[in-house]
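Objective 1b. Sequence-to-structure analysis of Membrane protein.
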Amino acid sequence: METVREIVLVAAAVSMGLMAGVFGLYSHTVMPGLRRTDDRTFVGAFQALDRAIINPWFMLTGFLGALVLTGAAAVLLAGPGGPALSWTLVALVLYLIVFLITVAVNVPKNNALKAAGEPDTITDLAGVRAGFDEAAWARWNLVRTLATTLAAICLAVALLRYGQG
């Protein structure tokens, strides 16, 4: 059982790190780059990015994987986890916040942008872009970036504490 706990905790930390990286890249690379584009390019590129990111690899190893693996690590550490359990629970709460922000804020904005249609058929690209509200999307993504980074740090500390126990 010891080995299973360790594997799940490591997998949770890696998955959380991947998510921190994804949100971080959007914060400091993707959104600033798209901000500098014209409306047609912004709408088309963001739609393409959003369609591409929704795939089994991302969902299983990243977005849902971080949630499931961190939850599983917390359950497995419930008995013998000691200090590692506390850090894992903090990571889980942080990621639950990220999950809720994603479902309540970012995904609806993404879906609305995709529902507007292909850029070549949209008559008011500026209106579609304004309706998306990229500044709000980016602010909430920054919250996701910070929360997943803190959660990854918590899981790294949990690994250290578990290794000491």
